[in-house]
Amino acid sequence: MRTIVKHRLFWPATALIALIVINTIARPRFVKITIRDGELYGALIDILRQSAPLMLVSLGMTIVIATRGIDLSVGAIMAMSGAVALQIIAGSDQPDNLGVVAVAVGAAILVSLLLGAWNGFLVSVLGIQPIIATLVLMLAGRGVALLITDGKITTVNSDPFEFIATGYLLLFPFAFLLAMALVAIVGSVERRSALGVLTEAVGINPEASRLAGVRSRGIIWGAYIVSGILAGVAGLIYSANIKAADANAAGQLIELYAILAVVLGGTSLMGGKFSIAGTVIGVLFIQTLESTILFLGVPSAQSPVFFAIVVVVVVLIQSSQLHKWARRVFGGRRSTETSSDVEVAA
Amino acid sequence: MTTLDTASVGQTNTLAYKYHAFMSRRASLMPTFAAIAILVLLFVGAEIFLRGDFITPRNISALLLDNAPLLVLAVGMTFVIITAGIDLSVGSVMAFTGIWLAKLLGDGVSAAIAIPLVLVGGALVGMLIGVLVQYFDVQPFIASLAGLFLARGLAYVVSLSSIKVENDAVLWLQSTRWSAGGWYITPTGIIALLVVVIGAFVMHFTRFGRTIYAIGGNEQSARLMGLNIARTKVAVYVISGVCAGLAGLLLTAYSGAGYPRNGIGTELDAIAAVVIGGTLLTGGRGYVLGSMVGVFVFGAINTVINFMGAEQSWTRIIVGLLLLLFIVVQRAIVARAERRG
After folding, report:
1. Is the pTM of this model over 0.95?
2. What are the chain B neighbours of A141 within 8 Å (beta carbons)?
3. ipTM
């Protein structure tokens, strides 16, 4: 039992399960899943489908944060990626042509890759603070996206493109499967090779890892490129869902929700140890909370109040100061667990 | 200062020497000088490009009027950034206090009660962030993120749509124009300038201000020197919160209404203005007056783009590029200082 409680994913997973249980008690329909024409439907499936863009962005954010960085530009990259793809599809004669869509998707991802590489260049080569280096693109990116779409909201009707967001494959929504596939790929590359350990080394102590022969520059650069590509895919899903490229609304505030998801999942903003599974749980928690708030009849605009409370509670639970107080209150009974408490917080 | 000057009296008179002495002693002022140079360049360039239509008393007065809220935000942000912190909540707090003020006034509360009340509201959000940062070791980024969500949500709790202000006292702040030969200034502009003056005074002439610089320079050393770190760090976030509350008042007066969607992303504009004005995000270096220059650079870019009739999206791109330019310059300065130090 103790090992379960001490597991780093215990608290995030408990919070998610508690939220689902509360929802189920409030409305039993919540957990009901029906199969229609070989496609799953239900509130839970909706949550999975809607979580795809945030999942991808948070996945990239996890890797960047593990290197002790942060990527504020993901929302802007989403906007640009959507703008590029839609502009190509809208400009062609056959928006339903699979080839056209493939070219559009390819171009959008290439642009996202270059933008991620640009962030990585500023951080790893010029040595600029990540927060300010990515702020540049965050500010300028939406402007560029507006220029690409000529200040308008480009709309298209393209079945293959819409499939990305609303299509189904093997019972599940395609967007969710796409997100899960990318989570699996990034997760296995990080954890089945030494890359994950090297990333953590760079995050824990960049100077020491450099002296130990870790090529930190390449690892940091790579993290921003991955984050850029994933944000680009998220932008495609977002724009495919609304069938439009909205340079102002695409990915608005998503960088903050992604950072929240990463922190909820137990990865420290100080870099180092990261947990991709934790991030997945964090994203699902945020999406479930969002759906709960909507169910409660609270206007979605007011939902940030709930998120503020969640953030405060989570950071307080992780705070070592609070653990110290708790130990003082509960006496010396827990004093042998001092070191493991830090584990939970990390 | 004196020993060096008297010892090298023979060569002090050459201009080159004076230049080098000044540069090495005032290296931290360089980014701010660069910002002033850019501001002058912007004005002169626009004046030439627009054939003498740009540098008019009316335009320059409008620059202060239009950017008064941002100016107040930037002053508060400078305090926080010099302690090596960051405050992402200011845009949301500005929206929250603005709409709350409009709501209170609409409900018949007198301005003399409503205005102090919303300033306290801003201060409380700031205090929440400060306490999280100082006593619970939460990173400023995350703590102020909580403040951002809280204030934005509260703004929508107050009202989902905009509320018109019909209070004479608040509208007076905006509609009154004291003018002299084409120049004019509104009470909102005077408030903003007062905030800058008070901010600069506190930073450079009080013990509190020196403590702020000391914390940003090296928190550990500041603590060992016996400075009151905890109180100062909470205080800077409270100051930033009060400034955001005041900006909410100015914005509500400016637009004649409160609107819960105001100020989305304004915290980034404020941070950009502070950085362009020469404050280092790593803390310890920076000037309130520099931030004022940064805000005017930001405002001037906006005005120039308006004049040229170009797409507004260019503003963000140019501000982004300027930000990039400045951080690269700052990076070079810091690297040079480290090599010598």
Report:
1. no
2. 320
3. 0.76
